[in-house]
Design goal:
The chain is α/β, with parallel strands linked by helices and 210 residues long. It has one domain: Rossmann fold (3-Layer(aba) Sandwich). The protein is 31% helix and 28% strand. It contains 6 helices and 14 strands. The strands form 4 sheets. It has a 7-stranded mixed beta sheet, with helices on both faces. Strands 8-10-12 form a 3-stranded parallel beta sheet. A two-stranded antiparallel sheet has the order 2-3. Helix 1 packs antiparallel against helix 2 and helix 2 packs across helix 3. The longest helix is centred in the N-terminal third of the chain and has 19 residues. It is globular, with a radius of gyration of 18 Å. It binds uracil. The site of uracil has 10 residues, from helix 6.
C-alpha cells in the first residue's frame, strides 16, 4: 500500500457508518454494522495480499488457480473495542491467527501501559492487521504497534472505523511504515480525547456498558 492513510468512501461503508454514528442505533445494531463495515474495510486492507497458484480440477478441466501465498495472516485486537472488529475479518479469512494487546493509560504519566500481550507465533513475515475502531490520540495505537514490532512483526497495517487527524499524525510520526485504512477522517478530538463528530465511546456502544 503506497498511501499512509486510505479513507474508504464506498457508498455502503458511508451509509452504514452514518447508522453507527446515530445515537439512536441499538447495541445489537451497532455490533452488526461494525462487523459488516469491518468486512468491507478488510476487503481494502487485504487487497495486496500475495497470491500463488495451485493445480486443481474443475468439473471441466485441470487449471492453475490463484490461492493466497505465504504465512497465515495475523489479526491483532487492541482491547477492548478491537474485539468488535474480529468477527468480521475472521468470517472473510477464517484461517487468520489472532492476538490481543491490552493497554491502559497511567493517570500520572498519561502514557499507555501494557497489561496484556498475546501474539501468534512468528509474526515475522506475516501480514499483521491491528484493529481498533477509534484512532483518537494515537498514543495507544502507536504503543501497540511498538509491541508488535518488538515481537518481530515487519509488515503491519492498521484498520480502524474512524480516525482523528491528531491520531493519524501521531501514527505517521511513530510508524510511517504502517498504512492505515479507515471509513472516515473526522474533524478533530475534543478536550476529553473523543473524536468529533465521532460516534461516542465505541466500546460502550458495542458492549452496552456506560
Ligand atoms: N475512543 C472511543 O471509543 N471514542 C472516541 O471518540 C475516542 C476514543
Amino acid at each position: 500500500m503506497s498511501e499512509h492513510l486510505t479513507v474508504v468512501d464506498h457508498p455502503l461503508v458511508q451509509h452504514k457508518l452514518t447508522l453507527m454514528r446515530d445515537k439512536g442505533t441499538s447495541t445489537a445494531g451497532f455490533r452488526r454494522l461494525l462487523r459488516e463495515i469491518t468486512q468491507l474495510l478488510a476487503y481494502e486492507i487485504t487487497r495486496e495480499m500475495p497470491l500463488t497458484t495451485t493445480t486443481i480440477d474443475t468439473p471441466m478441466e485441470e487449471m492453475e488457480a490463484p490461492i493466497l501465498a505465504g504465512k497465515k495472516l495475523a489479526l491483532v485486537s487492541i482491547l477492548r473495542a478491537g474485539n468488535g472488529m474480529l468477527d468480521g475479518v475472521l468470517e472473510l479469512i477464517p484461517s487468520a491467527r489472532v492476538g490481543f494487546v491490552g493497554l491502559y493509560r497511567d493517570e500520572e504519566t498519561l502514557q499507555p501501559v501494557q497489561y496484556y500481550f498475546k501474539a501468534p507465533e512468528s509474526l515475522k513475515d506475516r501480514l499483521v492487521i491491528a484493529v481498533d475502531p477509534m484512532l483518537a490520540t494515537g498514543n495507544s495505537s502507536a504503543a501497540a504497534i511498538d509491541l508488535l514490532k518488538e515481537a518481530g512483526a515487519n509488515n503491519i497495517r492498521f484498520l480502524c472505523l474512524l480516525a482523528a487527524p491528531e491520531g493519524v499524525a501521531r501514527m505517521k510520526e511513530a510508524h510511517p511504515d504502517v498504512p492505515i485504512v479507515t471509513a472516515s477522517l473526522d474533524r478533530e478530538l475534543n478536550e476529553k480525547g473523543y473524536i468529533m463528530p465521532g460516534l461516542g465511546d465505541a466500546g460502550d456502544r458495542m458492549f452496552g456498558t456506560k
